[in-house]
Prior knowledge:
By secondary structure, the protein is α+β, with helices and mostly antiparallel strands.
Amino acid sequence: MKKFYPVVFLFFLTAVTLRSQSISLDKLDLSSMECGWGTPEADKSVEGNPLSIAGKKYEHGIGTHAVSTYLLNINGKGKRLVAEVGLDDEANNKGSVEFYVLGDKKVLWQSGIMKKGNEAKKIDISIAGIKKLGLLVTDAGDGIDYDHADWCDPVIELTENIHAAALINKIVNVPYILTPAESAKPKINGAGVFGVRPGHPFLYTIAATGERPMSFSAENLPDGLILNNNTGIITGKISREGDYVVTLIAKNNLGKAERKFIIKAGDKICLTPPMGWNSWNCWATSVDASKVEAAADAMVKTGLINHGWTYINIDDCWSIKPDSKDSLTMGTPRDKNGMINSNKKFPGMKALTGYVHSKGLKIGIYSSPGPLTCAGYTACYQHEYKDAEQFANWGFDYLKYDWCSYGNIAKDNSLPELEKPYMLMREALNKVDRDIVYSLCQYGMGDVWKWGSEVGGNLWRTTGDISDSWSSMAGIGFNQAGHEKYAGPGHWNDPDMLVVGLVGWGPELHPTRLTPDEQYTHISLWCLLSAPLLIGCDLNRIDKFTLSLLSNDEVIAVDQDPLGRQAERIYNKDGKQIWVKELTDGSKAVGLFYTGENSKSPSGYFMWNGKKRKSKIILTADELGISGKFKVRDIWRQKYLGVFINKFEALVPYHGVVLIKVSKAG
Ligand code: GAL
């Protein structure tokens, strides 16, 4: 009997808190709230600080980030909604947001554009009769940077008791695989062209799917190169410049595949966008050598290497952290000769690069032109030549060169000051006897796409960091329009890394918050953009769906097309976009995207009935510059859809894509 009272009391307490007539929204399960960056927080800002708008502090509320949506099932039992909203004080002057309250697709309340320092706006509106209540924060049309948005003291009053859990509108997104199953017969994949500098070490692995054992051979391999017939790994050095047309052959018990492969020995490398893995989006500061080795192992074990995935790139946090209290990262930044040291998490760089190379993969490293990297680790300032030498001695094939603390060195943001550190490292890299892909990472400052190639970059980031949300990914991807004229073989625009699979900026990881349709959009768009493809997830725990996204050879071929054209946007209206990329064989890859967002209809941000909306997108032959009949192939499904006259129509899922290849028929 004694135990009975607490149980009754608990039941009573639960009933009171969960079945009351007014519900504080910060007490609800926020997992279905979409948030453009970070995670929505109850009673805190999105960065975990006390909620604060124009100096006024709030104990209760929700801290989120544009673009943010939250759909609640009120079922006609609502009376009023009250809240105070605004941009959190932790944002800087770049932030600007607009809050909306929607009831059954109609706008009930709208804040107008709100910036830092604007006093909170009060919402006190009737929600009588509303079935679905939508809370929306948009980026006010200028991108999501610093859009930290607060819903403070948000309370809904109800006419009768509803269980708090019943208010939550859970959307279940079931992944669906479009990539056809791999054939057991041999098939050679990957880019058909490869650049190398004469006299520099050559490493290329024939990417081939099909049952093992498989044997490899090559016709017309240039002098100086050796192919390992069992592994398909080609090594050596080419001494003379020239274009070498090689025939690659892969055989297994079920058959034989052959493919032309052009080796261009000259002054250009990175003739197609680099494909690989980078540690940042998954492990961030918790990276270590064993995680990097594990990524290389997984690249092979998962079979991704057979689709052309090549680089295993270490991001920040491998060098000594001068102010560190952690025995793993503290130490002497450089040896007595000024050569940079790795920290104890990376005890043997040479052994590590050797390990990765032995798998037929390449390996990358990261640094900054300033004294410190973005995470505060030793970087290259005033040691550029020594560091390039050390990277080459260690055996690295790729350098991502960030900006961060160089901001304190540069005199100003003028073009010469922005270019200077990148030119200096270029000179240093030119002195080493290794091909090192040079990746500039300064977030697009000074329109880097206009000069990244001139300073010798093979790729340059065009944006800030990506995160695993629709507004981040789509905000970056769809903003690449206009950059197409700056990309081409050897020099690429880089809209940042892929956020599919288990990501999390470590050590804790979570499944990407992009829906399956959004992930199809992400991969399709990046391939149309001829973007570097750097997987940001834990490859050792990759699921079937993610693997299917990363192993569709026809999709990858769009990215790796040797012509190196970046797609152009030819249509952008009412939440629908069409992007077209010219391919070497005269055909065109076309992405039909239904982004749904439309400034004229904020209701487009929500899936009101929990079901995927679809929208019809029409592509005309005129838009493509093709007259009359054209053939259409569905690239993800790898199936011909038929011959069409003058136009092609597709039903495109919300936030999704239909990716096709179009060529003139007859
Ligand atoms: C950022 C960069 C990220 C990651 C990070 C490491 O500046 O954009 O991709 O490299 O630094 O600290």
